[in-house]
């Protein structure tokens, strides 16, 4: 679908569907919706009066114009209560509207910029949210089945004020880049593990960088198993040693020497059987999504490069497969991480933190000043926060506060968990420096404390997205399946770090 920005009045838009909006509780439409209501001889006002249109967030009502406008139909989408309105409500409204347009087989759709008028949202931010909600709602994973193409081929964002056109164009362009990149992350999460092996993951990244014409902006490098052994990555290698698919330590580099080095690390277990500590068979197929952290950080890197963000970025994607076999790691084994710390393996199903431990050491070696890791790390995060909020932990409160503030604008909910010293005793080993599992109690927190042990100088934040990587049911702009949760927040956070 092509998204464009056009300078014209809503009543002059020519196409299949024109999208306008309404706040909940409004009795007399104003702004562009009021102009359209007047052109339709008060049709929208009558719908409100009869109780057929309330303005509830995501509510959609279609009316035919019967030649009174150049558009064949007008779709009114609810924005919800004005006092609760925010940027994420724009995404939801845009998603609901485009999905309704799809149902009536519309091809060309026009929309006003929700929230840029009486809603009080800056025009560029509102346009970005419209583009994001529209593209994300249309996402389909089509690699392994033939699906009908989406009906809507063009969505025009309409603005009557010529002075606002440049900022709306800028916002829409950013929204397109971010949403399309998030869909790349969704594709990776949805891809079966027999196809998305560690090596295939690396190849897909390389191919995508080339396809987007970003070879000069993103420096791509892969360390093989031999190179990892030389660097002393014993923690990561212990996870992969039961699989016939060798690990790949993928790094991406966007260089801007004038800025502090930011490092993104994404857990990338292309399939997690649990290893010798085998997971229950039920729902094990969902463990193809255990590489979602890697998909997210790649998508963020892709988006930043496409947006020409002036960032100094190192992205680490430690791709492994965790399988049981005669060569697999055993509970009770002791391995040595890149920084020389020894780890007693209590559970081979606590594997993600092992790959992240060596990745954090590598980030420190590369002198990254800020490090953010994102991972589908613990079932404890799902128990604590469900499928809505990600857990955030770290050793720099200012950094955590900045990240959470960004997430409030991106619509991806984050919640801080404490890294209290009292919990450290749970990962204390009798025979090694650390245990890789502290048991069920506060398991998300003890996993965070384990990771903290491998960060010395950098500002560091850990994000646990377990339960957020795959949606069981569709909701507004989030379809069933891979979500790409975290892309919007990390994109905005790193972009700000580069300004």
Supply the key terms.
nine-stranded mixed beta sheet, six-stranded mixed beta sheet, 499 residues, Aminopeptidase, alpha/beta, Leucine Aminopeptidase, subunit E, domain 1, 2 domains
- Tally of individual helices: 14
Any guess at the CATH architecture of the largest domain? 3-Layer(aba) Sandwich
Choose one word for the global shape. Answer: elongated
Catalogue the unreliable spans. Answer: none
Main sheet overview? 9 strands, mixed
Could you name the CATH homologous superfamily of the largest domain? Zn peptidases
Classified by CATH, the class of the largest domain is Alpha Beta
CATH fold node name of the largest domain: Aminopeptidase
* Coarse structural class: alpha/beta
Secondary structure layout plus pairing:
Elements: E1 2-7, E2 17-22, H1 31-39, H2 43-49, E3 60-64, E4 73-78, H3 87-103, E5 108-112, H4 123-137, E6 154-159, H5 165-190, H6 198-211, E7 219-223, H7 225-231, H8 234-240, E8 248-254, E9 262-266, E10 268-272, H9 292-306, E11 313-322, E12 334-336, E13 342-344, H10 352-365, E14 370-375, H11 379-385, E15 390-394, H12 397-410, E16 414-416, E17 434-435, H13 443-452, E18 459-464, E19 470-471, E20 481-482, H14 487-497
Helix pairs in contact: 3-4, 4-5, 5-9, 8-10, 9-14, 12-14
